[in-house]
Specification:
Elements: H1 10-20, E1 29-34, E2 38-43, E3 47-52, H2 58-72, E4 83-87, E5 97-101, E6 106-107, H3 116-130, H4 153-165, H5 171-185, E7 195-197, E8 206-209, E9 212-216, E10 223-225, H6 228-231, H7 233-237, H8 241-250, H9 257-282, H10 293-305
Antiparallel strand pairs: 1-2, 2-3, 3-5, 4-5, 6-8, 7-10, 8-9
Helix pairs in contact: 3-8, 4-5, 4-9, 5-9, 9-10
Length: 307
């Protein structure tokens, strides 16, 4: 993470609004969250300002959201943050930024899904609606998530080894996770059309209400590719294997065995990333988020138990 040298504050947000969107400048401003790529500032009760801050490619991500999410949102059965305004780079803040709708709920890394059957149906309906063939001009890179799984084998091996060394995973569990990964990496590749993918469906990017998935946020990684990438979210979000199976059974079109194998591989990647980010948060290292650890541990346990 490479944090911007500019100190983002409520005063800065108000200044940017006064300069470019003065009709919104009198609304109350308060910090909503500091994410991996962006900071989110609440703007009244129903809007938010999203500003790049921690990665160099965050600029293109907010532009992507502004371009595509308004076109996709009407067909999605869950609330999502829909861009309403675009902020241009200026002397006060030399990066683009956006004003979006606010999605109510608590992030699932802090308020996990507890009602598995209902959430399985909600997640399946959301993914079915989103996973439609994407136009030719859609991004297909996905920050490394758009290619064959086998290309990530060295990364997974390194992450497993470091997780064992840090005491985050036992050697025995790492061996099972490695077997799951190898089955996924050798599964037949997706041979259908590239479909729209959220691309980053981990617990911090999904919100819940009363234990049920109630919204999906952060579409900066939106890209076109293999639906298995998003189908992995059933393993990382839902509370048990029965809910995972229910989600995949309700998803349309019904995923084949190879797609489900690849989804398990993507879930291993997600779980390992969450373990390391969570551990960094516990120990106060840069980029760490302690709340990511427990859902990652739970996801890995589910995967291993069903191997």
């Amino acid at each position: 993470m490479t944090h911007t040298e500019i100190d983002i504050s409520a005063d800065l947000v108000r200044e940017l609004l006064r300069e470019q969107h003065p009709d919104l400048a009198d609304r109350p401003v308060r910090l909503g969250a500091r994410g991996w790529d962006n900071q989110l500032w609440r703007l009244g009760d129903d809007l938010a300002v999203r500003l790049p801050w921690a990665t160099q490619d965050a600029d293109e991500l907010v532009i992507k959201e502004h371009t595509w999410v308004p076109r996709l949102a009407p067909r999605l059965p869950l609330p999502v943050p829909v861009p309403q305004r675009l902020g241009r780079p200026s002397s006060a803040f030399p990066r683009p930024w956006i004003v979006t709708t606010w999605v109510p709920g608590e992030p699932a890394d802090r308020a996990p899904v507890t009602r598995g059957a209902e959430s399985a149906d909600v997640l399946a309906a959301f993914l079915t609606a989103l996973h439609q063939p994407a136009p030719a001009e859609a991004d297909t890179g996905g920050r490394g998530r758009g290619g064959p799984l086998a290309a990530a084998s060295a990364y997974v091996a390194d992450q497993l080894a470091s997780a064992v060394e840090a005491g985050l995973v036992s050697g025995e569990d790492a061996g099972v996770a490695r077997t799951i990964w190898e089955a996924a990496a050798t599964a037949p590749a997706w041979d259908g059309p590239p479909v729209w993918l959220h691309g980053d469906l981990h617990a911090a990017n999904v919100v819940t209400a009363d234990g049920v998935i109630s919204g999906v946020i952060d579409f900066g990684d939106l890209f076109a590719g293999d639906p298995a990438c998003d189908l992995s979210a059933a393993w990382t979000l839902l509370p048990d294997a029965a809910a995972v199976e229910r989600c995949h059974a309700a998803y349309e079109p019904s995923p084949d065995t190879a797609t489900l194998r690849r989804a398990r591989g993507w879930a291993v990647i997600r779980a390992l990333l969450g373990l390391h980010v969570g551990d960094a948060g516990v120990h106060g290292r840069p980029g760490g988020k302690a709340s990511w650890g427990p859902p990652a541990q739970a996801a890995l346990r589910r995967l291993i138990a069903t191997a």
